[in-house]
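Try it yourself: sequence plus magnesium ion, in.
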Amino acid sequence: MLNIHRSKAMPRIDVATATETLRRGGLVAVPTETVYGLAADCENELAVRQIFAAKGRPASHPLIIHVDGLALASRYLQRPSPRLALLAKAFWPGPLTVVCEASAQASHAVTGGQATVAIRVPAHELTLSVIGQLGRGIAAPSANRFGAVSPTSAAHVEASLGFDIALIDGGQCQVGLESTIVDLTHAQPRLLRPGAVTSAQLEHVLNVAIGAVPMESTVRAPGMLASHYAPRAGLELVELKDLVVRAHTRQGQQPRLVVLAPDGFDFAESVEVIRIPSAAEGYAQALYRSLRQADALDASLILAPLPTRAGIGEAIADRLSKAAAPKGNTSDG
Ligand code: TXA
Ligand code: MG
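Structure, out:
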């Protein structure tokens, strides 16, 4: 084999080529409304195992199966779930992942050997077409190296995983944060990860209270803090009303301070500012891109305002606090 082939970048590909690549057991990075995913045919165990290698992620971490509707989802479920049917009707396609009991079609490589499986229908036309043409679910974690910031554009995927990855460019992700995860395998549904679909919305549709079980409580070792979604720089969170004063204090103490701030917050000329939208939806969409920009500026510390807790603000606060946790103890990827 000539060495020249190894260094050749994979092109950005179309739906037909992506489907063919998956059918042959290859990996494809695909757009979704939340973040880009790194996908394999979920029924091809060998292909699924390649995902863990490409991400540098421990194989014990289960993956989400992406399907194009409830019919295909049922293939991976032990039995029909009335609650899932309600949620699917209200939120699919969309940023909601549901954990149910798994069928034998949900392979151990996907479930991490657990009896449950996580499933969602992504709201992106190109990826829905791929799934439709493949006729099977695709297993996909976020398309980044384990523990790094999730990609919200095709360029981010290449920056994270290199140019050797086959990639469908579906533009910038609309939501910008990973999906909400709700576990339906207990009498009371539990929120495992906050996202654009809120607890209040789930409660409204299911007509039952949702319990909160942060995912770290089940996967991390006791006493360890989880650092996920983390930029290289340190990250400090501050109430919006204290942002300007804190920035000026920190600037004298840091080799390179970068501040995330909405328009209308003014700083000394010398403070480096990345502007973020003031509405929560805009902040969510811009968050990971902004953290990458700050890294590119070689920030030693990023100062970021806490969002209000309403709506997607809960998910922003969740990701920010994980990104601010001490590094070296990643429990997600
Ligand atoms: O928005 C998203 O969900 C994106 C896009 C690509 O769809 N995907 C994503 O995948 O964030 P990943 O692998 O980075 O995060 C999936 C999370 C992991 O924390 C994993 O532990 C959890 O889902 N998960 C998967 N299967 C599970 C299961 N059976 N029970 C509980 N948690 C599960
Ligand atoms: Mg991830």
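One thing you can check immediately is this: Residues 32, 34-35, 37, 61-64, 97, 99, 111, 114, 116-118, 122, 140-142, 178-179, 181, 192, 215, 332-333 surround threonylcarbamoyladenylate (ligand 1) (CB under 6 Å).
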